[in-house]
Predict the 3D structure of the following.
Amino acid sequence: MHYTVQRAGDVPNVVPDYARIWMWVRDSKSAGADAVLERVKQIAQGAAQIAGVESKLTVQAGDYEILVNYTGAKLLHQNMTALGPIQYTQQEVDFAKAIQRAAGTPENGLNGALRPLDPPGLPPDGGSTDVGDVSWLVPTLHFSVTTGAKDAPWHAWPTVATSGMSIGHKGMVHAAKIMATTAIDLFNDAKKRAEIRAEFAEQTKGFVYKPYIPDGPPPIPPQ
């Protein structure tokens, strides 16, 4: 759980008439996030009963985990293999090493090599994306091209520094080529499209999609 206190009173030693916190609950699976969300609801209700006040919990948004289609992933991986690794210049490698040095991580430069395809059942790398919701509604082929300095913090300024220059541009072009070749393959191969659709149908058998965002205008919190 992550949270920030947005309203907690106006003066010391006085119980406020209104208080508000904003929370995120996270898990690698939507079912896990749902379980944590139920605990948060119970906490809000219990806290309100203890203080003798009213509580209100509003869900603003939420994401499902990505449903990996391994038939499609194999096709993507084949095209990534055919394209080969990203080639970096010495200047780009030196820049990445300078970023790593500033971040206090090993100065091992950049690695444009292709990683092995994760076996079925292994979840993708962590992160939050609404592509997860799409993947439970239609077959979705998803991959990532990492262009940051190796082992440097990826959720911080080092990633911005490397991705906002030629290093990141090469990754973007590389990904575009993989997407384009895979799209052509799918357009020309009806059998492969059917295999991907069949895997999706088996994975989602009995599944009912329930969006986290409620109907109507988005519940933007008051300012």
Remarks:
- The chain has two domains: 2-51, 70-203.
- DSSP finds seven helices and two strands in the chain.
- Helices lie at 30-51, 70-83, 90-103, 131-135, 157-163, 166-188, 190-203.
